[in-house]
UniProtKB/TrEMBL annotation:
<keyword id="KW-1133">Transmembrane helix</keyword>
<feature type="transmembrane region" description="Helical">
    <location>
        <begin position="131"/>
        <end position="151"/>
    </location>
</feature>
<keyword id="KW-0812">Transmembrane</keyword>
<dbReference type="InterPro" id="IPR032690">
    <property type="entry name" value="CarS"/>
</dbReference>
<feature type="transmembrane region" description="Helical">
    <location>
        <begin position="20"/>
        <end position="41"/>
    </location>
</feature>
<feature type="transmembrane region" description="Helical">
    <location>
        <begin position="61"/>
        <end position="80"/>
    </location>
</feature>
<keyword id="KW-0472">Membrane</keyword>
<feature type="transmembrane region" description="Helical">
    <location>
        <begin position="101"/>
        <end position="125"/>
    </location>
</feature>
<protein>
    <submittedName>
        <fullName>CDP-diglyceride synthetase</fullName>
    </submittedName>
</protein>
<dbReference type="Pfam" id="PF01864">
    <property type="entry name" value="CarS-like"/>
</dbReference>
Length: 160
């Protein structure tokens, strides 16, 4: 994404792992995932009633496509500041800090995009602090779990 741009500090803006393919892919996959989620919930009305967004908006194909694309956009946009900071601290792309920053960045890596999605959602629906905290905890746990599964399946190089 940064086209190899090197800043005055001699470091890449975001690094090689941030690509337009990934950026645009997340928007497309976000839209597809939300469409599928909407279809699944439409077939289970009891669960559909519990959905935070569908309490305010109708569960339609077009709505889900737009919602998923915008959540995907929020997701990738909020990864960028973390990548920028990690390059400044000389943390390699796709790696975790090996110093005192290690656990800080492990958690930031799990929640940066979730924060972006929550901020986006706040423009459209009211969320209590408990709901936001629940989204962060559930999302971070899911992210860590998926990372572990991908690592064990040898589809990911780092455990976290």
């Amino acid at each position: 994404m940064d086209a190899g741009l090197i800043l005055k500090d001699g470091k890449r803006l975001f690094g090689a792992n941030k690509t337009w393919k990934g950026f645009l892919g997340m928007i497309v996959w976000g839209a597809l995932a939300q469409i599928l989620w909407g279809l699944l919930l439409k077939s289970i009305p009891t669960l559909e009633k519990l959905h935070l967004v569908y309490a305010f908006y109708e569960n339609t194909l077009l709505f889900n496509m737009v919602l998923g694309a915008l959540l995907g956009l929020a997701y990738v946009l909020f990864e960028l500041p973390n990548s920028f900071i990690k390059r400044r601290l000389e943390i390699r792309e796709g790696k975790t800090a090996e110093n005192g920053w290690k656990w800080t960045f492990i958690w930031i890596d799990q929640i940066d995009s979730l924060i972006g999605c929550i901020i986006f959602l706040l423009f459209y629906i009211p969320l209590s602090w408990q709901q936001m905290l629940g989204i962060l905890i559930l999302g971070a746990g899911t992210h860590l779990g998926v990372n572990r599964l991908l690592y064990w399946a040898k589809l990911r190089k780092n455990r976290m």
